[in-house]
Amino acid sequence: MSVTLRIVLIVMSILTSIYVLVQIRKSQLKIEEASFWFFFSAILILMGLFPQIVNFGAKIFGVQAPVNFVFLGIIFILIIRLFHLNVKLSQLENKVENLTQRYSIDENNRRKESKKVQ
User: I need a labelling partner for 58 at 20 to 30 A (CA). Which of 37, 66, 75, 106 fits?
Assistant: First the structure.
C-alpha cells in the first residue's frame, strides 16, 4: 500500500471524525448514529497506520493488491450500513402508517361523537 494512500486514509478519517463531531454539536446527528462513523474512521486510521493488517487481509482473501482489499472492505462495511438503514427506514414507515391509521380512526370517532351530541 502506497504512502500516499495511507496518508489519504488517515487525513480523511480525521476530517470525517471532525465533521461528525460538528454535526453532533449542531444536534443534526444522534450519538448512536455517530458511533458507526467513529468506528469506521478508526478502522481506516488503523489501516493507514498499520499496512501489515491490509497486506495480511489481502493474502487471506486472495486479493491481488492491498489497495483493492481496502476498497473491498470499505464497500462491504458501507453495504452492511445501507442494509441496516433500510431496515430502520422500513420500520419507521410502518410506524408512520400505523400512526396515520390510528389518527384517522380517532378523528372519525370524534366526528361521530360530535354528531351524536348535536
Answer: 37
In whole angstroms, give the CA distance from residue 115 to residue 35.
53
Q: What number of CA atoms fall less than 13 Å from residue 1's CA on the CB side?
A: 24
The model's pTM is 0.75
pLDDT tens figures, 5-38 = 899 999 999 999 999 999 999 999 888 889 999 9
Range of the domain at 13: 3-117
> What count of residues does the chain have?
118
Say whether 87 sits in a helix, a strand or coil: helix
Total domains in the fold of the chain: 1
Q: How many CA atoms lie within 13 A of 55 on its CB side?
A: 7
The DSSP secondary structure of 52-116, one letter per residue, reads HHHHHHHHHHT-SSHHHHHHHHHHHHHHHHHHHHHHHHHHHHHHHHHHHHHHHHHHHHHHHHHHH
